[in-house]
Amino acid sequence: MKIDVITTKKEFEAIKEKWDALLANSSGSIFQTWEWQWVWWKHYAKDKKLFILVATEKDLIGIAPFYLSRSYYGLPIKVLSFLGTGPSDYGDFIVLPGKEEKFIKGLFKYLSTTNVDWDIVDLQQLLEDSPCINPLRASIKEGGLNGLELFQESSFALLLPSSRDELMGTLSKKFRYNLNYYPRRLFKQYKVDSYNLNDRADDITFGMNLFFDLHQKRWQKKKLPGLFWNKRYRDFHSDIAALFHKKGWLALYFLKLDDEMAASLYGFKYNNCFYYYLSGFDPRWERFSVGTFIVSEAIRDSITKKLSCFDFLRGTEEYKLKWGAASHSNMRFLLCKKDGYLKGAPLLSRPIMQFLSYETKFARKAKERLRRL
Questions:
Q1: Over the range 150-179, which residues count as b (16 or more CB within 10 Å of their CB) and which as e?
Q2: What predicted TM-score, i.e. pTM, was given to this entire model?
Q3: At 122, phi and psi to the nearest 5?
Q4: CA atoms within 13 A of residue 24's CA, in its CB half-sphere
């Protein structure tokens, strides 16, 4: 197995076709697509260096989509992380099925024995059932690495049945009642228009701005800034939506009541799965459970289009359980060399990784508090 390193934007662009062809044959998600990571790099490259490791055996068998940062929370530590860390709900390697063990073992042998200047590998949001998890654990035990495995967050996914009626039969009596009651009220009192913008010829930029506004209104009512106060985050998703619209991957739902925008849902369709990323609604319509209505519409549409999974992604919100979604653990792995050095001094690997583990716990608790608001 040969490993090469991609460090330039030109090389990153050139691997596009091979990257997505490999992903199509692996278990990766929308967040491992070349398109998602390319746009992420466009917006988040500052103070970072591309460090994508590509493994071949005649043909491409694996990609470690890394970048290298020169500091971490102000500490002079060089950290290897997945491209997309932050906005991506899942991080992972991209590996040809059956080659996971060989790829992971070869990857960390390369990182441990060659002249690569890194201090810590920080692998975030790995799904517990990723085929790379067990080879990663084995590499930590067998290699010259210190490692910490941490629970990071829970994610939820619903396997979709063949019909909405079949799904309704699995839900609680109270939830089924609410799913019928609130739409009846809406259709009785208002002119209702529910649609997926991706199925229309409407302007995507205009649609995304409507979505941003609806998402922010809910948080403004709580006197909190919301996610899209950050211009870089907003610009990143504007570019993602435009690119995904061209690819047929965008899902942008709206609910209009008497020609007023009441709710919106932003997600993606990829590889037979729906990814529900974020939603928003005008608090004036909250009494009609418009948030639940728009999710119900997205699920109904996913079943109609014969998708197999509706992924609610990260977060422990109670409504996901009402839909019957199953919980999965997202893991974080922190690794460093046992005999590493930091600026000429012995690297205190365990204390540094322990500090990062505290950051994981703090971030999880902070997000849980926000979700309860």
A1: bebbbbbbbebeeebeebeeeeeeebeebb
A2: 0.92
A3: -115, 105
A4: 6
For the stretch 32-73, pLDDT in tens is 999 999 999 999 999 999 999 999 999 999 999 999 998 777
Q: How confident is the model at residue 140 (pLDDT cuts 50, 70, 90)?
A: confident
What is the enclosing helix (H) or strand (E) of 150?
strand 145-159
Alpha-carbon distance of 354 to 125, in angstroms, equals: 18
Tell the residue number behind the tokens 């302007």, with chain if given: 203
Classify residue 222 as exposed, middle or buried by CB count within 10 Å of its CB (0-12, 13-18, 19+).
exposed
pLDDT digits (tens, 9 = 90+) for 209-268: 999 999 999 888 888 888 898 999 999 999 999 999 999 999 999 999 998 999 999 999
* Residue 184 neighbours by CB distance under 10 Å: 9
Lowest pLDDT segment from 68-72, 86-90, 285-289: 68-72
Nearest to 123 by CA among 115, 114, 132: 132
Angstrom CA distances, 65 to 12, 49, 68, 92, 298, stand at: 10, 12, 10, 8, 31
pLDDT above 70 coverage of the chain, percent:
90
Provide CB contacts within 8 A for 163, sequence distance 6+.
Answer: 303
CA distance 76 to 235: 29
**What SS3 state is found at 106?**
helix
Question: Beta-carbon neighbour count of residue 141 at 10 Å?
Answer: 8
For the segment 275-290, the average pLDDT, to the nearest whole number, is 95
Instruction: Measure Cα distances from 60 to 56, 94, 187, 282, 290 in Å.
Output: 4, 10, 54, 48, 46
How do strand 79-82 and strand 66-69 relate by DSSP bridges? antiparallel
The closest of 325, 327, 329, 322 to 309, measured between CA atoms, is 325
